[in-house]
Specification:
The structure holds two protein chains of two kinds. Chain A is of the alpha+beta class. Chain A has nine helices and five strands, in the order H-H-H-H-E-E-E-E-H-H-E-H-H-H. Chain A folds into two domains: 130 residues, Nonspecific Lipid-transfer Protein, Chain A (2-Layer Sandwich); 38 residues. The two termini of chain B are 28 Å apart. Classes of the chains: A alpha+beta, B alpha/beta. At the A-B interface, helix 1, helix 6, strand 5 and helix 7 of A face helix 1, strand 8, helix 9 and strand 15 of B.
């Protein structure tokens, strides 16, 4: 075949460096849970159509495990009372589905930069449980056009614009730093 | 040649149009189309808005109503035809003879394309659809070599469209019963192959085991690229050997064959993947737009860089380079 190689954005699944992950591991989870709850609320206020696409799967509980971070998330996709909780480990029971992958992969799925099937093919992403619910969630989120930084920054009202620009610059710098350290732009553990 | 691109959601349709699609194909959110997946497809209102967006940006929308109506439920398919016409669809993609007859008689001015699901793979069959229902284009099944496509294009009184990228079927399009055997639901009747409701994945010490209904489909070792959990791409074991029996888990990539397909007289090139995300749509559409622009300019086809998006992280030219005949 004449066509070979990889699409850079699809291949560049960067893992959070272990020292940073370890440092996060000693922090209390409650403030993180509160912050994520606010972001979830902002996202869902801007993208109510997500629940339409979830259909009969709205109300289910999804366990999200960033494999490069020392905590996990439980998303309760209840249209009336959406909720996200943070814990050290996913609960053994009460989840409809579990989704695991590096933070950058999960975030890339949320804001549409990465293709879920491609992550699955590459084994960067793993899913268990109610696969129909996972597919519905993936499609609902992909259609929503979520902009995680923009949605989160909207919480800051008049400071949203400067905060978003600052966050994007910081992420670009961090991404460049990690790319340099990894050499190839790929996660050694996942790709 | 026209570039025909997939869209499973309104957001994906906008991405495809913005990335350079000449036309986008999509379907309603029910079993009338062959990608009836949870959370996917278009409501009636979304279809009207999507068609308006495409037309504003100079692209066309082809609505797939390409599953086979069930006895006793034909009205669902006829309503899909009526609603697609009312929404302003530029063409309907249809497979079933009865539904083609309904569309041709009820909406005689509507452009009709024969779906790949009809499996029309020779000039006589295609001429029949042209004479009986006035189809303007046939989407050719992925069983033909380029030389066979050229022979068909010369012989038929309508346009031809061929797949150039994406998932492959097991050369029984419109006739495959593997999914139905395992789950009771099929792409032909229900619009879904290997429905997610019957799929399971399990981690076994770093290996991933995929299941469909009561069948173990595959076991992928640590780090081994994975594939869709379809029976046709199941890995079988006989004695000490394990192997793919029907089809390897690979994606079609015919970018290198674009000059030959143009020479063969093909009208349109189709990208598979209505079930894929916006990132896939944008990357693949842009890559093939660049390739077509290069072809028109007389330049070599540039590398697409699409390997990371392919099933099993591997691509093939499929039957287009048929080496076994």
């Amino acid at each position: 075949m004449a066509v070979t190689g990889t699409t850079r954005d699809q291949a560049a699944i960067l893992a959070v460096p272990r020292p940073i992950s370890a440092a996060i591991g000693v922090l209390p989870l409650a403030p993180l849970g509160s912050a994520l709850g606010l972001v979830l609320g902002a996202v869902l206020r801007r993208h109510r159509r997500i629940f339409d696409r979830l259909g009969t799967h709205a109300g289910k509980r999804f366990g999200l495990r960033p494999t490069d971070l020392p905590f996990a998330l439980v998303l309760h996709a209840d249209p009336a009372r959406p909720h996200i909780a943070v814990s050290r480990h996913l609960p053994a029971h009460g989840l409809h589905a579990r989704i695991a992958g590096p933070l950058a992969g999960l975030a890339g799925l949320v804001d549409g930069r990465l293709d879920g099937d491609a992550l699955f093919f590459s084994r960067a992403l793993s899913v268990e449980g109610d696969i129909e619910a996972v597919i519905a969630l993936r499609n609902a989120i992909d259609d929503a056009g979520i902009d995680l930084l923009g949605d989160a920054a909207s919480l800051l009202g008049p400071f949203a614009g400067p905060a978003e620009r600052f966050a994007r610059t910081a992420l670009d710098l961090a991404g460049g730093f990690l790319q340099t350290r990894s050499g190839t732009g790929r996660s050694g553990r996942w790709n | 040649m026209e570039l025909i691109c997939p869209a499973g959601t309104p957001a994906a349709l906008r991405v495809a149009v913005d990335a350079g699609a000449d036309a986008v194909y999509c379907g309603f959110n029910d079993e009338t189309n062959a990608r009836n997946f949870p959370g996917l497809n278009f409501s009636r209102a979304e279809m009207r808005e999507a068609i308006a967006y495409a037309h504003t940006h100079g692209a066309r929308v082809l609505v797939a109503v390409n599953t086979f109506p069930r006895a006793g439920a034909v009205a669902l398919w006829e309503r899909a035809v009526d609603d697609a016409v009312a929404a302003g669809a530029d063409a309907l993609i249809v497979a079933d003879i009865g539904l083609l007859a309904y569309a041709a008689t009820t909406h005689p001015a509507q452009r009709l394309h024969l779906s790949v699901q009809a499996a029309a793979a020779n000039p006589d069959a295609i001429r029949f659809y042209r004479e009986a229902f006035g189809i303007r284009r046939v989407v050719l099944p992925r069983v033909l070599a380029v030389r066979e496509i050229a022979a068909i294009a010369r012989a038929v009184p309508c346009e031809t469209e061929v797949f150039v990228f994406g998932g492959l079927c097991v050369m029984e399009e419109g006739r495959c019963s593997l999914s139905s055997y395992a789950t009771g639901r099929s792409p032909n009747m229900h619009g879904v192959c290997s429905p997610a409701s019957h799929v399971g994945y399990r981690d076994e010490g770093g290996s991933m085991v995929s299941r469909l209904g009561d069948f173990t489909i595959n076991r992928f070792g640590p780090g081994e690229p994975a594939a869709y959990p379809t029976l046709c791409k199941g890995r079988f074991r006989a004695g000490e050997a394990s192997f793919y029996l029907f089809e390897d888990p690979v994606s079609l990539d015919a970018a290198a064959l674009l000059p030959a397909l143009r020479e063969a007289g093909v009208t349109a090139l189709k990208i598979e993947g209505r079930q894929r995300g916006r990132a896939y749509i944008e990357a693949v559409v842009r890559a093939f737009r660049r390739a077509l622009d290069a072809l028109d300019a007389g330049h070599p086809i540039p590398p697409g860089g699409l390997q990371a998006l392919t099933e099993g992280q591997t691509s093939t030219e499929g039957a287009y380079r048929k080496g076994w005949r």
